[in-house]
Design a protein that fits this description.
Blueprint (H helix, E strand, L loop, with lengths): L14 H4 L3 H14 L14 H5 L9 H10 L4 H18 L3 H4 L23 H7 L8 H10 L36 H11 L13 H12 L11 H11 L9 H24 L4 H27 L11 H15 L4 H5 L2 E3 L2 H4 L1 H4 L27 H7 L3 H5 L3 E3 L3 H31 L7
Keywords: Membrane, Transmembrane, Transmembrane helix
Protein name: Regulator of G protein signaling superfamily
InterPro entries: RGS_sf, RGS_subdomain_2
Length: 448
């Protein structure tokens, strides 16, 4: 049986996301950022906000790596965070390019929109039309004339009559030749298939910066058979491909990144924080529930025995100890917490953390890891065959209950757990006083 937590994984919400337009999602994100919250993050302190986690300003178990593991193993949507981190890094790298290279990939304003204060380019001259006569570009001379007028580095693509072509008529020199005898994925071929399935013809401008990287992104995150395909609507997918058909500017991802960021901020992040509050694994939480029920039963037995005896009513107050321990433990376990672990501010290691020394390289760090690199993203997020799954299944139940523990380093998370523990104590005390008061109201039994 694969490991699971007491916190039930919420189903991925699709209808609510699809009901919002790109502008509404972007507005919701902007309002969340400006207000200092993460959106739908009721009760989550600013110290554990989405922006703070992404910026690396938190300690385990609330780091980006922990967030990634949660999305991968619990919510099964790690591709959203992977794409978001890549896009942040891509924007930074694109912004650092020289102005001459940036000019090759103009900002995208939409299919029918034009940049403000920009005049429409003149019609194509007869000489230019003669150059494109008989090529695939003869029907769209305005696109290339615009590029030629605004971009001094623009080089027209080769015509289908040139040598060294692939099946689609594009120059093989500009394509990613990643298919090898080892069975590696041909990202360019998959990207071309994504354009064809969307009813678009791929006309890549190899002179644009990061064009090969964009092809890999389409292959991994956008194409139907992508290893980490995003959960996008057909409209979002087609709009993105149309934008990437013309430019590699980060603005081409505007609508898609709004959808991904909304999903991370408003759904995944609050769920992640609630899941992180649980300091014990499922066997330990069930064990804690059993102790809670046992404490309550013990308190009931003590109260009943003392009530039926000839002892004075004052002795019946002793039963409050069992009620207090049992009810508080049960309330905390209902929240996914073990009071014993909380007393030491400890938590159980997750199954994938238990065997990390065997399955992961040493010195694993988010900043040096390939979250933002496409070189290691050819693999999918499937984890059912990872070595830790079989190893964890072989562990007996008692060993799972008393698994390895680590100290919770994040102060804000400890404060949340302290609050929950205090609420459990107060709730248990109130209920215990009521129950003991009821037993004290009965007269002596004088049976023994």
């Amino acid at each position: 049986m694969v490991y699971s937590l007491s916190y039930r994984r919420p189903a991925r919400v699709v209808s609510s996301r699809d009901s919002l337009s790109g502008e509404e999602k972007q507005k919701s994100i902007n309002e969340s950022v400006n207000s200092g919250s993460s959106g739908m993050s009721h009760g989550i302190p600013e110290a554990l906000s989405f922006d703070r986690i992404i910026a690396g300003g938190v300690c385990p178990p609330c780091t980006v790596r922990d967030f990634m593991n949660y999305l991968k193993y619990i919510e099964l949507s790690a591709e959203n965070l992977q794409f978001y981190l890549w896009f942040r890094d891509y924007c930074k790298r694109f912004d650092e390019l020289p102005q001459g290279e940036k000019a090759l990939a103009p900002e995208w304003f939409g299919e029918n929109a034009e940049p403000e204060n920009q005049t429409r380019p003149p019609r194509v001259s007869p000489e230019t039309a003669a150059v494109f006569k008989g090529t695939d570009f003869a029907n769209e001379p305005k696109v290339f004339e615009t590029e030629k007028a605004t971009n001094p580095f623009f080089t027209p693509p080769r015509t289908p009559n040139s040598d060294n072509k692939n099946d689609d008529g594009y120059s093989i020199d500009s394509l990613d030749q990643s298919m090898s005898s080892g069975g590696k994925v041909n990202h360019t071929q998959r990207a071309s298939g994504a354009f064809q399935s969307a009813g678009l013809k791929w006309k890549p401008l190899s002179v644009q910066p990061y064009r090969e990287e964009i092809s890999r992104v389409i292959s991994i995150y956008i194409a139907d058979e992508g290893t980490r395909q995003l959960n996008l609507s057909s409209k979002e997918r087609t709009t993105l491909l149309h934008a990437l058909q013309n430019t590699t500017h980060p603005s081409a991802f505007k609508e898609v990144i709004a959808t991904v960021e909304w999903s991370l901020r408003c759904q995944a992040h609050p769920n992640f924080i609630r899941w992180t509050i649980c300091n014990g694994n499922r066997p330990r939480v069930i064990f804690a529930r059993g102790l809670g029920v046992g404490g309550i039963v013990g308190g009931l037995l003590a109260a009943i025995i003392i009530t039926l005896s000839s002892a004075s009513r004052a002795w019946r107050v002793l039963s409050i100890i069992g009620f207090l321990i049992g009810i508080s433990t049960l309330i905390a376990a209902w929240k996914g917490m073990c009071v014993v672990l909380h007393g030491m501010h400890h938590r159980h290691l997750r199954p994938w953390e238990l065997f990390s020394s065997d399955d992961e390289p040493g010195g694993y760090d988010m900043k040096s890891d390939s979250y933002t690199s496409l070189d290691s993203q050819d693999s999918s997020n499937s984890w059912e065959d990872e070595p830790w799954v079989a190893k964890y299944e072989k562990r007996n139940l008692v060993r799972k209950v008393f698994d390895r523990e680590v100290w919770i380093q994040e102060p804000a998370l400890r404060q949340i757990q302290d609050t929950i523990f205090l609420q459990a104590i107060l709730g248990a005390f109130t209920i215990s006083v009521i129950i003991v008061g009821i037993f004290c109201a009965f007269p002596k039994g004088n049976y023994f």
